[in-house]
Design brief:
- The chain is built from ten helices and 13 strands.
- By secondary structure, the protein is α/β, with parallel strands linked by helices.
- It has a single domain, classed as UDP-N-acetylmuramoyl-L-alanine:D-glutamate ligase (3-Layer(aba) Sandwich), CATH 3.40.1190.
- Strand 4, helix 2 and strand 5 form a beta-alpha-beta unit.
C-alpha cells in the first residue's frame, strides 16, 4: 500500500485558447497529492489518501472522486473549513501558473494519525503540504517517522515559490529530509530553485547526501533517474498539449506504480533495479504524463489507457 499525503484543492482553470482575465474559469479537482492519489488509483496501484478535507460541496465531490478512482480514504479527516482554491493561468504553450488561496482552509489543519497502518510500503508527500504550516510540520513528522520505521519515504516538492515565505528556511528543512528519502522526484526548475545549481549537479549531490534515487523531469526533453545503477534517461513522449496541469503529479504516481510492479517499493528494491528496469519505469511515467498533458486539467489515465498507449 502507498500512502499519499497532502492537500486536495480546486483548480479554477480558464477555457483553453482564451486569453486575458475575461476567460471563464471552470473547477477541476486538484492539488498535487490528490492528483497523485487519483493517478495511482486509476493505475490500479493500492493507494490510501491522508489529508483533511472540507465538508463543503467541493470536498464532498473530491471525496467521491477518490472513491471512484479506487483510493482508500480511511485516513481522510473531515472538517467544516473551506476547500483551498488555485486560480490557474495558462501560457500559449499550455504551461500552468497558479495563484493560491489557502487561508484557514481544511487541509492546513491535518492531524498526525500516528504510525501508519502495517500494510504501508511507501509514503509519498509533496507540494504545498510540505511548505505551509501548521500542516507542514505534521507531514514532516510523518515522513521522518515512517522512514525510520523502514517504509520507502518519497517526496515531490513541486515548488511554488510564492507560497514559501522563507526560501532559505525551506531549503534547510529540505536538506534535512535527504538522508531519509528513498525516492526524490523533482522538475528541473525545482532542482535549480532548491540547490542553486544545474539539475544534474543537484541530483548527484542529493544522491551523495543519502537519497536512494532521484528522478528529474525535464518537460519536453524527457526525464532522468540518478540511481545506484547509474544515470538513466528517456525522451519525452510526443503529444498535443492542452495544458500541463497534473502532469508532474501523474509522473510521480506512475513512477511509484511501476516501481511497485518491479517489487521496488523499498530502499533495497530501488538499489536492486538495473538500467533496463529503470528505463521501463521512466518510459511508463513519461507516457502517463503525456496522456495527462493531452487533456484539460488534471485527468490522469487509467491502467488500460496507458497500456494501450504503450503498445501503440
Amino acid at each position: 500500500m502507498i500512502v499519499v499525503g497532502g492537500e486536495a484543492l480546486v483548480d479554477l482553470v480558464p477555457d483553453p485558447g482564451v486569453g486575458g482575465v475575461e476567460a471563464a474559469l471552470h473547477p477541476h479537482w486538484g492539488g498535487g497529492p490528490f492528483n497523485t492519489a487519483i493517478a495511482l488509483g486509476r493505475l490500479q496501484a493500492p493507494v490510501r489518501f491522508l489529508s483533511r478535507m472540507s465538508q463543503d460541496p467541493y470536498g464532498e465531490a473530491m471525496l467521491q472522486r477518490l472513491y471512484e478512482s479506487g483510493v482508500d480514504t480511511g485516513l481522510v479527516q473531515r472538517g467544516p473549513e473551506q476547500t483551498s482554491l488555485a486560480v490557474v493561468s495558462l501560457t500559449p504553450e499550455g504551461s500552468a501558473r497558479y495563484g493560491f488561496y489557502f487561508g484557514g482552509t481544511a487541509d492546513r489543519l491535518v492531524a498526525d494519525p500516528g504510525p501508519l497502518p502495517s500494510d504501508t510500503a511507501a509514503v509519498a508527500l509533496g507540494t504545498c503540504s510540505l511548505a505551509l504550516e501548521p500542516g507542514a510540520s505534521v507531514y514532516e513528522r510523518i515522513l521522518l517517522r515512517e522512514a525510520a520505521a523502514g517504509r520507502l519515504a518519497c517526496v515531490d516538492p513541486n515548488i511554488r515559490p510564492a507560497l514559501i515565505p522563507d526560501a532559505q528556511a525551506y531549503r534547510t528543512r529540505f536538506r534535512g529530509w535527504l538522508p531519509s528519502l528513498g525516492l526524490l522526484k523533482v522538475s528541473d526548475e525545482d532542482a535549480v530553485w532548491l540547490a542553486g545549481e544545474d539539475p544534474d549537479s543537484a541530483a548527484r549531490a542529493w544522491r551523495r547526501a543519502g537519497v536512494g534515487a532521484v528522478v528529474v523531469t525535464r518537460g519536453a526533453t524527457g526525464m532522468a533517474a540518478y540511481t545506484s545503477a547509474g544515470v538513466v534517461d528517456v525522451p519525452a513522449v510526443p503529444t498535443k498539449v492542452v495544458d500541463t496541469i497534473g502532469a508532474g503529479d501523474t509522473a510521480y504516481a506512475a513512477l511509484l506504480a511501476r516501481l511497485g510492479v518491479h517489487g521496488a517499493l523499498s530502499r533495497d528494491g530501488l538499489a536492486g533495479l538495473d538500467t533496463e528496469a529503470w528505463r521501463d519505469v521512466l518510459r511508463y511515467a513519461a507516457t502517463a504524463a503525456a496522456i495527462t498533458c493531452s487533456r484539460a486539467g488534471a485527468d490522469p489515465p487509467t491502467a488500460a489507457e496507458l497500456a494501450l498507449e504503450l503498445e501503440s
